[in-house]
């Protein structure tokens, strides 16, 4: 079994559906470490990625999304970012940060990149810190199936880690 690590960090970009990603910028993109893990983001640009929107690499090694000009609401952030290469077995290790009320998600095992919502599995990322009872649409939940066993979401503006 080949294991690949997708080390992706997610950071909100000032709105509800803001999604951003970062990896260990010091590692060379695509090169496996001694355990066979691969870092996908080179810390500089979108090499190795495909996007449907205004994604860009910030100078501090973070991938971020800008809102589309002239649009309002969450739809202005409605864009996907995905690795060009497909992976079989992998370990997903990511960090994310959201603003108050932020809402996003991470899709895995997407069969049709043109329709990830219908053909993939979405792990919910949203601002649910302090919520007593959590379900499939709360942070860490698998949309349409099961919620997290415990609410581990940190307050808005703080980095969270999901493995």
Automatic annotation (TrEMBL):
Against PROSITE patterns, the record matches this protein to: PROKAR_LIPOPROTEIN
**Any idea which GO molecular function terms this record carries?**
hydrolase activity
What range(s) does the 3-keto-alpha-glucoside-1,2-lyase/3-keto-2-hydroxy-glucal hydratase domain occupy? Answer: 36-162
Q: Which Pfam families match?
A: 3keto-disac_hyd
InterPro entries in the record, alphabetically?
Answer: AL/BT2_dom
Q: Any idea what this protein is called?
A: 3-keto-alpha-glucoside-1,2-lyase/3-keto-2-hydroxy-glucal hydratase domain-containing protein
- Organism of derivation: marine sediment metagenome
């Amino acid at each position: 079994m080949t294991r690949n690590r997708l080390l992706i960090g997610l950071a909100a970009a000032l709105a509800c559906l803001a999604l951003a990603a970062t990896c260990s910028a010091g590692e060379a993109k695509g090169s496996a470490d001694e355990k066979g893990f691969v870092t996908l983001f080179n810390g500089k640009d979108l090499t190795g990625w495909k996007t449907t929107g205004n994604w860009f690499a910030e100078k501090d090694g973070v991938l971020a999304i800008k809102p589309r000009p002239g649009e309002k609401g969450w739809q202005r952030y409605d864009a996907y970012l995905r690795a060009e290469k497909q992976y079989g077995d992998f370990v997903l290790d990511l960090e994310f940060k959201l603003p108050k009320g932020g809402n996003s998600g991470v899709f895995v095992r997407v069969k049709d990149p043109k329709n990830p919502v219908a053909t993939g599995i979405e792990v919910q990322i949203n601002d649910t810190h302090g919520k007593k009872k959590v379900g499939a649409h709360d942070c860490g939940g698998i949309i349409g199936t099961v919620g997290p066993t415990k609410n581990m979401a940190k307050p808005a503006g703080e980095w969270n880690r999901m493995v």
